[in-house]
């Protein structure tokens, strides 16, 4: 049984949006800006400036999202991460500054204060989805389990520890550690190797058709799409293979037959 992390086990995009929204409400109070407009501008600036950094090829290869760079510390070994550490503070401050400057002028201390406030807001929203802990508890330790996640190791392990899911000690393959992320087969194969399970006997659960379900299915795994935010999960077009849509992690139990991990 192999899990994706972001928006499968832990709340990622909605938590980032809520943290940006809370920070923008504060910006509205102190700077008089329109908070909703600022929210959109922060995500836009984060994306365009992240794409313009010389580190973008590596960031794309291992799947570090532009909004994660607004709080990530990148305390990981390797030249790529030291390059990211070198730009992280100026990057996150430039994102907030340019987003605010679309509405009003702003001084450097206010920019610094807002960009640090966002980090606090984001770190206070490190939560697992309500079904994650109970389902893993039920399966652990009888069913061998692992996590395969894109992103920077420090970032992803922070999510695991602050959400409490690290208590299970599941083997975790982080794309940043091996230099390549999903949808490449490499991280999936690493996890299968660690579990000593053949792909045909493994179940993968993720929230992305392109990064989780299609590559897992191509490797011969049973691939389950967790559709938490779809209005009509039955209408989702799945790739060929043993794929299915689930709307709660509790549904994984029925795919675990004897002899399958
Ligand atoms: Mg995900």
How does this model look, in words?
By secondary structure, this protein is of the alpha/beta class. It folds into two domains: 2-10 and 127-255, Rossmann fold (3-Layer(aba) Sandwich); 13-123, no CATH class. The chain contains ten helices and six strands. The protein has helices spanning 13-31, 35-52, 56-62, 79-101, 108-123, 132-139, 153-163, 175-178, 185-195, 209-218; strands at residues 2-3, 146-149, 172-174, 203-206, 222-226, 243-246. It has a six-stranded parallel β-sheet with strand order 3-2-1-4-5-6. Bound molecules: magnesium ion (MG). The site of magnesium ion (MG) has 7 residues, from loops.
Q: Measure the end-to-end span.
A: 5 Å
Tell me the number of strands. Answer: 6
Please state the second-level CATH architecture of the largest domain: 3-Layer(aba) Sandwich
Any idea how many domains?
Answer: 2
Mean pLDDT: 96
CATH superfamily name of the largest domain?
HAD superfamily/HAD-like
Number of helices: 10
Estimate what percentage of residues fall within beta strands. Answer: 5-15%
Helix content: 40-55%
| The level-1 CATH class of the largest domain | Alpha Beta
Which fold does the CATH topology of the largest domain refer to? Rossmann fold
Could you name the ranges where pLDDT drops below 50 across 5 or more consecutive residues? none
Radius of gyration: 19 Å
**Spatial strand order of the main sheet:** 3-2-1-4-5-6
Order of helices and strands: EHHHHHHEHEHHEHEE
Helix-strand makeup class: alpha/beta
Gross morphology is globular
List the ions, cofactors and other small molecules found in this model. Answer: magnesium ion
Described by strand count, sense and barrel closure, the largest sheet is: 6 strands, parallel
